[in-house]
Design goal:
Layout: E1 13-16, H1 21-36, E2 41-46, E3 61-65, H2 75-99, E4 103-106, H3 113-120, E5 129-133, H4 140-145, E6 151-154, E7 168-170, H5 177-180, E8 194-198, H6 206-217, H7 221-224, E9 227-232, H8 235-248, E10 252-255, H9 261-267, E11 270-273, H10 277-286, E12 290-292, H11 302-312, E13 316-318, H12 326-337, H13 340-353, H14 358-368, H15 381-385, H16 388-398
Parallel strand pairs: 1-2, 1-4, 2-3, 4-5, 5-6, 6-7, 8-9, 8-11, 9-10, 11-12, 12-13
Helix pairs in contact: 1-14, 2-3, 6-8, 6-12, 10-13
Keywords: Cell cycle, Cell division, Cell membrane, Cell shape, Cell wall biogenesis/degradation, Glycosyltransferase, Membrane, Peptidoglycan synthesis, Transferase
Pathway: Cell wall biogenesis; peptidoglycan biosynthesis
Subcellular location: Cell membrane
Length: 400
C-alpha cells in the first residue's frame, strides 16, 4: 500500500469507496477516467474492502480508515461504530490536509463518511465534495452527507430523499468498459435457442436457486427444449441446481462467480436478477430485458425503486420476492419467451435508459467543481474547451 502524496505538484482527487462491487466498480471507472485526464488519484477505503494491489487504485496512494455502519445495531455496537467513524474522520482530515486534495468524491455507504466529513472539517479551505448515488433512493450515508456536497451525481432521473435545492447532475452509473461497449451491440430476439441468464449479487441469491429450476420444470416441453441457462448460485447450492437442470435435459452453466459477465450479458435474451444500482446500469447499458426481484430486506427499498423505474419505461418486469414462486415465474416466463417481439421492445427500452458514458459525465462534474480551488497544473475539460484553440478545433470538426 502506498500512502505517499503524488509527486509532480499535482493535487490528487480522493475517491472514497469500500465494501461491495456496487460501490467499487463505479469508483474504479471514475478513477480511470480522471487518470486519463492527468489527475493523480488517491483511494480512501475501509478495512472490510482493504487495499487494492491491482488496477487503477494500485497506481496511487491508498488509505484504510477505521469506521463501521451504525444503522441496525444495538446501542453498544452503535457507540463503538460512532467512535470508529470519529477516529476515521479525524484521520481523513489530517490526510486530506497533507495531500492538499483537489476534490473528494464519495460513492455511498459508511466508508464514504470519514473522508467526506474530514473534508468538511477543513473549513473554508476544504476541497469540493461530490457524492455519487447509484440508486433511485438516496442511501442513508449519502442522505446525511448531502447537505455538505457541492455536487450530487445521480444514476436515475428521479431520486427520492434528495434535500431541497440540492445541486444534482444526472450522470448515470459508471460501469466497466467491457459492459459499456455492449451498448453498441444490437439485441437479437431468441430463435431456436433461448439464452437465460440468472444472477443475484456477488455470490448469487438462494431464492433463485430455490425457485428458478422449479419454474423451468413447469414450462411446456417444447419451450424447455430451446433453453440454455447460465445461473449464478452459491457454492452450497450449485450442485443441486445443476442436478435439477440435468434431470430436465437442459444445458446449464452453474457457478458462484463468472469472470465473463460481459460475454454472458451480451448473449442473453432475458435476465433474471436483483435490482441493485450496478446491475440495473449494466442491464440498461447492454440493452437487455429483465425480470427483477428486488432485495426485500433493504430499509429504504432502493432496489424496488430501481426496478420500478425500469418497469415504467417498459424495460423490465418486477416480481416482489414474496410473489416470486415457481408457478408465478413459470407463467411469466412462458408469456415472455413466447413473445420475441415483446422482448425486443423491452430491450430497446432498456437501451434507451443506458448511459455508457457515465464515467465521462461524472469526471466532467468533478472537474467542473475544481474552480473552487483551480489547479493550473492541469486545466479542467471546461477550461480547455473555453480556449480559442479548442473552440477553433471544435468548429473545424463540425464544419462540413
Amino acid at each position: 500500500m502506498s500512502t505517499q502524496a503524488p509527486s509532480g505538484g499535482r493535487r490528487p482527487i480522493v475517491i472514497a469507496a469500500g465494501g461491495t462491487g456496487g460501490h467499487f466498480i463505479p469508483a474504479e471507472a471514475l478513477a480511470r477516467a480522471l487518470a486519463e485526464r492527468g489527475h493523480p488519484i488517491a483511494l480512501m477505503t475501509d478495512r472490510r474492502a482493504g487495499t487494492r494491489d491491482h488496477g487503477i487504485f494500485a497506481q496511487g496512494a491508498q488509505f484504510v480508515l477505521p469506521g463501521a455502519g451504525i444503522a441496525g445495531h444495538g446501542l453498544a455496537r452503535a457507540a463503538r461504530a460512532a467512535l470508529a467513524l470519529a477516529r476515521g474522520t479525524l484521520q481523513a482530515r489530517a490526510i486530506l490536509r497533507r495531500l492538499d486534495a483537489a476534490a473528494v468524491v464519495g460513492f455511498g455507504g459508511y466508508p464514504s463518511v470519514p473522508p467526506l466529513l474530514g473534508a468538511r472539517l477543513l473549513g473554508r479551505h476544504r476541497p469540493p465534495i461530490v457524492l455519487h448515488e447509484g440508486n433511485a433512493v438516496l442511501g442513508q450515508a449519502n442522505a446525511q452527507l448531502a447537505r455538505f456536497a457541492d455536487g450530487i451525481a445521480t444514476s436515475f432521473p428521479v431520486v427520492a430523499r434528495l434535500p431541497a435545492g440540492a445541486a444534482t447532475t444526472l450522470t448515470g452509473m459508471p460501469v466497466r468498459d467491457t459492459i459499456a461497449a455492449l451498448h453498441d451491440q444490437p439485441y437479437t430476439p431468441p430463435g431456436d435457442t433461448i439464452r437465460l441468464l440468472v444472477w443475484g449479487g456477488s455470490l448469487g441469491a438462494r431464492v433463485f436457486s430455490d425457485v428458478v429450476p422449479d419454474a423451468i420444470g413447469r414450462l411446456p416441453a417444447a419451450l424447455r427444449a430451446r433453453l440454455h441457462i447460465t445461473q449464478q448460485a452459491r457454492a452450497e447450492d450449485a450442485e443441486r441446481v445443476r442436478a435439477a437442470y440435468t434431470a430436465l435435459g437442459i444445458p446449464a452453466e452453474i457457478s458462484p462467480f463468472f469472470a465473463n459477465v460481459p460475454e454472458l450479458l451480451g448473449a442473453a435474451h432475458l435476465v433474471i436478477g436483483r435490482a441493485g444500482g450496478s446491475s440495473v446500469a449494466e442491464l440498461t447499458d447492454a440493452g437487455r430485458p429483465a425480470i427483477l426481484v428486488p432485495l426485500p430486506i433493504a430499509a429504504s427499498d432502493e432496489q424496488g425503486a430501481n426496478a420500478a423505474s425500469l418497469v415504467a419505461a417498459g424495460a423490465a418486469w418486477m416480481i416482489r420476492q414474496p410473489d416470486f414462486t415457481a408457478p408465478s415465474l413459470a407463467t411469466r416466463l412462458e408469456s415472455l419467451l413466447s413473445d420475441p417481439t415483446g422482448l425486443a421492445d423491452a430491450a430497446a427500452a432498456a437501451r434507451s435508459l443506458g448511459r455508457p458514458d457515465a464515467a465521462r459525465r461524472l469526471a466532467d462534474l468533478v472537474e467542473g467543481l475544481l474552480h473552487h480551488r483551480p489547479d493550473p497544473a492541469y486545466p479542467t475539460a471546461a477550461q480547455t474547451a473555453a480556449t480559442p484553440a479548442a473552440q477553433t478545433a471544435a468548429t473545424t470538426e463540425t464544419t462540413p
